[in-house]
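Figure 3 (text version): structure tokens given as input.
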């Protein structure tokens, strides 16, 4: 295709199509769905409001993930990790969950719930802790 052999109308059509594609791209027509499932703060059942900032929520999310994925089969590690989430108010737990979900979008165990579900709770006490945390997650929509 020789550009010199194109008629002015054909050039105009090519430029028009390119402009439409560029405009659609800027408007997000080619972007994927919103990444990272987000729980709404309206799901709070204890009437609390968030007291932690985004960095604290991200740090807690990372620490929770690392403690569960790096230390398999340790009851004490699992208990400490679960207790760190159970001690949070509903609003703060939702903030940590949302921070987690945005941090690990394209990775295995990409939601806070999935990292808890994948954890083996071989001790009876671990199974109780896991069930209680998952029940709270369900109540909050996490």
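Below: residues designed for each position.
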């Amino acid at each position: 295709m020789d550009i010199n052999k194109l008629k002015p109308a054909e050039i105009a059509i090519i430029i028009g199509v390119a402009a439409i594609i560029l405009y659609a791209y800027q408007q997000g027509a080619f972007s994927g769905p919103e990444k990272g499932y987000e729980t709404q703060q309206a799901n709070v059942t204890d009437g609390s409001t968030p007291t932690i900032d985004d960095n604290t929520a991200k740090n807690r999310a990372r620490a929770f993930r690392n403690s569960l994925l790096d230390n398999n089969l340790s009851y004490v590690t699992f208990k400490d990790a679960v207790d760190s989430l159970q001690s949070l108010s509903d609003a703060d737990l939702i903030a940590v969950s949302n921070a987690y979900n945005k941090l690990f979008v394209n990775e295995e165990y990409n939601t806070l719930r999935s990292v808890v579900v994948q954890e083996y709770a071989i001790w009876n006490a671990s199974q109780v802790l896991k069930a209680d945390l998952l029940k709270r997650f369900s109540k909050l929509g996490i």
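The helical segments are 8-26, 54-70, 75-86, 90-103, 112-118, 124-140.
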